[in-house]
Amino acid sequence: MAKKTVVSNGDVLVDDLRRLIDSLQPEQPITDEFESREDGRDTWYRDQREHLSGWLSEYNSPGAYGRKNPSTSGKHFYNHFRCVAGLIWLAEALGEDPQVLNGAVAKVRAAPANPSSECAAFRRVVPWTRILELIEQ
Fold it and tell me: Are residues 129 and 10 in contact, defined by beta-carbon separation less than 8 angstroms?
C-alpha cells in the first residue's frame, strides 16, 4: 500500500508531493488542450507529471538550476514554480472541478505573456490552500 501524503501545518514535504504526483495519471484533457496551443517547445520531459516529478526530485538540493536556498516545502514549490501548464496539470490530476480549471485557464490567457504573470493568474484561482484540499480528498 502506498504511503499517504501527510499534510501538516498547511504544507506537504516535497518528497511526499512527488510520490503523490508519481501516482497520478499523466494525461489530463484540460492540460493537454492548453499545451496543444503552446508553441512547439522542445522539452526534456514527456508530460507534466514527469516535469513536476523531475523538478521535485532535486528541489531540496541545488539541482540543475543551482538553487541557493533549497527547500523541502511543497507550498514553497507551488508558489514559486514558473510553468503554468505544470500547475494546471497538478490541479487537474488532483481532481479540481473542470469549470474552475477552465476559468483559471481563461485568466492565464488574459494575463501578460510571461511565466510569472501566467502562474500568478492561475494561483489566484487555484491557490495552495485549494491544492491541499484536493490532496486531502
Answer: yes
Residue pointed to by grid coordinates 490532496: 135
What is d(CA 113, CA 57) in angstroms, rounded to the nearest whole number? Answer: 28
Query: b or e along 89-108 (b: 16 or more beta carbons within 10 Å of the residue's beta carbon)?
Result: bbbbbbebeeeebeebbebb
> For residue 132, how many other CB atoms are within 10 A of its CB?
19
Rounded to whole angstroms, how far apart are CA atoms 122 and 109?
A: 10
Higher pLDDT, 36 or 84: 84
Q: Answer yes or no: are the C-beta atoms of 114 and 73 closer than 8 Å.
A: no
Backbone torsion region of residue 81, taken as left when φ is above 0, otherwise alpha when ψ lies between -120 and 50, otherwise beta: beta
Tell me which of 32 and 58 has the higher pLDDT.
32
> Which pTM value belongs to this model?
0.88
User: Cell numbers at residue 100, please?
Assistant: 474552475
Cα 9 to Cα 4: distance, rounded to the nearest angstrom? 16
Q: For residues 51 and 26, is the Cβ–Cβ distance under 8 A? A: no
